[in-house]
């Protein structure tokens, strides 16, 4: 019997232990934009989280990720984004 579990993006970050890595991306993105105003921080963070969520859905249409695979996928995605904004 197979069990299908859905995770929120917050749970994915917790499971993969990628919160600090994601924080690096948020900081690097803000820096690449020349800084952000207080009212731009939340949209920046949620935009990055939405992009990550979209990527995860795209990478696994059947929703089948194992923990170690998920960590590699999330970490690689963050690294790619860091390279794009000049933070990696």
Keywords:
mainly alpha, 88 residues
Explain this structure to me?
This protein is mainly alpha-helical. 72% of the residues lie in helices and 0% in strands. The protein is built from 4 helices and no strands. The chain has helices at residues 9-16, 19-32, 38-59, 67-85. Helix 1 (9-16) crosses helix 4 and helix 2 packs parallel to helix 4 (67-85). The radius of gyration is 14 Å and the shape is elongated. The termini are far apart. 12% of the residues are buried.
Low-confidence stretches: none
Order of helices and strands: HHHH
Total beta strand runs: 0
Q: Which whole number gives the mean pLDDT?
A: 87
Class inferred from helices and paired strands: mainly alpha
CA distance, first residue to last residue:
42 Å
| Estimated radius of gyration | 14 Å
Largest sheet: none
What percent of residues are in strands?
A: under 5%
Topology, please?
Elements: H1 9-16, H2 19-32, H3 38-59, H4 67-85
Helix pairs in contact: 1-4, 2-4
What's this entry about, in short?
The protein is mainly alpha-helical and 88 residues long.
